[in-house]
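ARCHIVE CARD
CATEGORY: sequence design from structure
SOURCE FIELD: tokenized fold
FIELD CONTENT:
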């Protein structure tokens, strides 16, 4: 048995991995293995799975000349099968490639992922970034990456000529006719004429030429790049600790959840896209008519710029923000305004997620590999593809409720009148029927499509969706870690904290029924101010006047001074002390949080008993805390203070609390977990027992672990056909 093997593969396909997602990509008929490399502590071997156009012997000879140990695919497969642990930089991809393309099943328990291990310790997960930040002796082969990309997808000429081929076919009769006319004229006039062989119409394959680059030089360079990746992975594997047993179990659970997939209603998705396409077509035709054919596409910046210039407006950019700024100018000429509004309508992204879902969905209508373990610095999940963790929450019914409150209070209606007539069931039927006219009768089609994004997640036959939601878990966490007894006791008594803070802000007793707007401002305070946000940020995030934001922010700080004193200040002081005295363990927040500074790393001990890592941390000459993180493609210094630290504590701690619940539910066979969204768990359950099973989930989610025994938890939820 081989103790440990590093493994990496290179593949090629007609489709794009990022656009179509792992599951669709790996099962596509055109996807195949190019080469793969394995490495143990004593052995490196690279196998090519495609033959060169120059011949296999030439390819293998050049691979050896490049310093590679060439092995057969059979030898590589035998090493994988004999390995106790297989290490890869992205296990989900390499496991799928080995299983689907090689026919080698490696149990998931045998995999170790350097990406997951790096992100667990606050480091970037990619090989390139990880090698740079860890200052490994060898980094990512950037030039090899650039050249290898030529092999991963078909030749650009092969793709572009496919698009041109219909025009070639259409033009062929005219080409033959012109040739015959020239020959006939030559016979009559005696003009010189060169007789050519018959002009056959080339087949699509002949016209396109070879699909792939398969010359020995390129394939060798790709194999060298692949072997270099394995060497870097081997160095990262040696430098990084394995995941702790609890974290390994979570990583493994997330992997299984990704494989399980999220069930989608493809009829709804196709209907939404069809409606949006027709709406955009309608507005484009209207503008083409309005401009006399000068603007035939609302996605053609050149036409839009020229149209604005006709009316003396220099409008070089028609990006979303620039269009919004221009429309805010009352002096904008009406013809330009009409086109700008149309550009907004055509550019609204209400169907972007629908389109991404359709591109990535598997044949069984499941959306897979959409969540990333430890994708944030606090180890919470991150999203990819459709970004299911950040799907728009439905708000039209909430708007309708606010409108009802306006009517009851005798106030002018502050929402469009159509929202008062909105019926979600009728909207779903119209979308699934691709009925744009029906949506137009209801109101704004684009807004209705956006409001139904979550509805595309639908339970399959015989199942319902149970998705209990923890109430204000982060706000409660801030009060809990700060020992703010006033707020904690209010939660324990099931009092409305939003009304309580609103009463403080506005100076009169606020209740939910009679003062919905004031209560909403109290809610903004409770949910937005715990991490130290100032008035400007609160105003911008919630689209409220800055004077109102000041009242909310300072009202919150006055009402709950423990958040500032025990939370922000306590955490910042403890972190600074730990950095100034390396090796000293400094506690704060009644011993629930601790800091330890070692070898340039600031480690934060969370209430759950897990370390959170902040690499290359320090305190500058002005007493300012900082650490380093991979942001926008670079290893950057990040300033931190108490408000950021409490964010880390709460998001990290609440992440651990959620997994305490989630891992219990995952162990119960009655639940098919498909999604975790920070404060909610989503599972498919038997429709005949849905109420009982949802109640059991909520019981689990309100029974805290010993380390959070006094945490005031609140949860609500009921089984539904669709995710909301």
């Amino acid at each position: 048995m081989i103790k440990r093997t590093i493994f990496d593969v290179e593949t090629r396909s007609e489709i794009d991995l990022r656009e179509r997602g792992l599951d669709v990509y790996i099962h596509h008929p055109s996807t195949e293995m190019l080469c793969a490399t394995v490495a143990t502590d004593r052995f490196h071997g690279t196998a090519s799975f495609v033959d060169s156009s120059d011949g296999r012997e030439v390819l293998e000879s050049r691979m050896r000349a490049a310093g590679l140990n060439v092995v057969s695919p059979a030898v590589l497969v035998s090493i994988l099968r004999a390995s106790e642990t297989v290490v890869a930089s992205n296990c989900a991809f390499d496991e799928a490639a080995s299983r689907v393309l090689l026919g080698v099943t490696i149990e998931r328990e045998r995999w170790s992922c350097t990406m997951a291990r790096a992100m667990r310790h606050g480091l970037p997960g990619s090989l390139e970034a990880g090698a740079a930040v860890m200052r490994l002796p060898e980094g990512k082969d950037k030039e090899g990456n650039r050249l290898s990309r030529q092999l991963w997808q078909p030749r650009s000429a092969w793709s572009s000529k496919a698009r041109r081929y219909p025009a070639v076919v259409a033009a062929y009769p005219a080409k033959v006719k012109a040739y015959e006319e020239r020959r006939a004229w030559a016979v009559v006039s005696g003009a010189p004429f060169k007789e050519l062989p018959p002009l056959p119409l080339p087949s699509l394959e002949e016209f396109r030429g070879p699909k792939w680059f398969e010359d020995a030089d390129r394939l060798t360079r790709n194999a060298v790049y692949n072997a270099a990746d394995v060497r870097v992975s081997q160095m990262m594997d040696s430098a990084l600790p394995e995941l702790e047993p609890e974290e390994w179990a979570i990583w493994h659970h997330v992997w299984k959840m990704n494989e399980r997939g999220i069930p989608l209603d493809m009829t709804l998705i196709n209907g939404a896209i069809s409606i949006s396409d027709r709406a955009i077509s309608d507005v484009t035709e209207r503008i083409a008519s309005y401009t006399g054919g000068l603007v035939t596409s609302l996605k053609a910046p050149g036409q839009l710029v020229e149209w604005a210039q006709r009316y003396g407006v220099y409008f070089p950019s028609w990006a979303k923000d620039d269009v919004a700024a221009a429309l805010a100018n009352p002096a904008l000429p009406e013809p330009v305004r009409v086109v700008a509004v149309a550009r907004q309508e055509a550019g609204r992204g209400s169907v972007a997620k629908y389109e991404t879902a359709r591109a990535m969905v598997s044949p069984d209508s499941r959306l897979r590999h959409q969540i990333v373990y430890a994708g944030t610095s606090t180890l919470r999940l991150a999203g990819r593809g459709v970004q299911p963790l950040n799907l728009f929450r439905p708000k039209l019914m909430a708007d309708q409720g606010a409108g009802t409150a306006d009517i009851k209070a005798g106030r002018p209606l502050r929402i469009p009148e159509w929202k008062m007539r909105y019926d979600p069931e009728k909207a779903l039927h119209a979308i699934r029927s691709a009925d744009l006219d029906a949506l137009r009768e209801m109101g704004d089609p684009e807004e209705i499509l956006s409001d139904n994004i979550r509805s595309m997640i639908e339970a399959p036959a015989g199942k319902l969706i149970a998705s209990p939601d923890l109430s204000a878990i982060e706000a409660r966490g801030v009060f809990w870690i700060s020992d703010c007894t006033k707020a904690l006791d209010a939660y324990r008594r099931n009092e409305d904290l939003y009304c309580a803070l609103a009463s403080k802000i506005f100076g009169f007793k606020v209740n939910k029924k009679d003062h919905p707007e004031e209560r909403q401002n109290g809610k903004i305070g409770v949910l937005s101010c715990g991490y130290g946000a100032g008035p400007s940020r609160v105003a911008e995030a919630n689209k409220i006047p800055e004077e109102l934001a000041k009242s909310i922010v300072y009202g919150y700080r006055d009402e709950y001074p423990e958040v500032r004193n025990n939370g922000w200040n306590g955490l910042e002081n403890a972190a600074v002390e730990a950095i100034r005295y390396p090796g000293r363990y400094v506690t704060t927040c009644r011993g629930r949080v601790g800091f330890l500074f070692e070898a340039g790393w600031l480690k934060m001990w969370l209430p759950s008993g897990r370390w959170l890592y902040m690499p290359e941390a320090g305190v500058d000459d002005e007493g300012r805390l900082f650490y380093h993180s991979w942001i926008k493609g670079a290893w950057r210094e990040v300033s931190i203070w108490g408000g950021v630290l409490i964010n880390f504590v709460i998001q990290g701690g609440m992440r651990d609390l959620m997994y305490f619940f989630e891992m219990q539910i995952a162990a119960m066979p009655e639940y098919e977990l498909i999604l975790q969204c920070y404060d909610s768990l989503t599972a498919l359950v038997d429709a005949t027992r849905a109420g009982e099973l949802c109640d059991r989930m909520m019981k689990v989610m309100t029974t805290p672990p010993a380390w959070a025994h006094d945490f005031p938890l609140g949860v609500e939820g009921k089984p539904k056909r669709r995710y909301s």
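CARD ANNOTATION: Residues 88 and 113 are 5 Å apart (CA to CA). The radius of gyration is 31 Å.
SHELF: design records, drawer C
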